[in-house]
Amino acid sequence: MECTIDWHGPDGMLFVARTGSGHVTAMDGSPDGGGNDLAPRPMEMLLAGTGGCAAYDVVLILKRGRHEVSHCRAKLTGERAETDPKVYTRIHFEFIVTGRNLPVPAVERAVKLSHEKYCSASAMLSKTAEITHSVTVLEG
């Protein structure tokens, strides 16, 4: 896996990342940090990537279990250290999963498996952050 990051300066802190799979995404800083607020912050991207990794796992586990899942939302709330390096110290995952006749225990199991076995991103972040989860299952 690889990624290339290019700075699109000199008048700000806009960076463009090109992934090994050929996709492009931008990152920027806040105006008080020299950026122009044109894109997400790098630490927001880290949180978003972790949420995407976990949500992917949850949906895949449920589908493999032949559950009828129609929507999955992972809302992450992160708290960071006060001093540098400002690592994440606490991350809460709120999963809202919609499907037909979805058993709550199956969704809870999928979330647990993602966190404990499959999600590489949350496994890395758990080295510095306390990670918690909540699950809401909706019929639909």
TrEMBL record:
UniProt xrefs under Gene3D superfamilies: 3.30.300.20
SUPFAM superfamilies for this protein: OsmC-like
InterPro entries documented for this protein: KH_dom-like_a/b, OsmC/Ohr_fam, OsmC/Ohrsf
Coiled-coil annotated spans: none
Residue ranges crossing the lipid bilayer per the database entry: none
Signal peptide: none
Protein name (database record): OsmC family protein
Organism this protein belongs to: Allopusillimonas soli
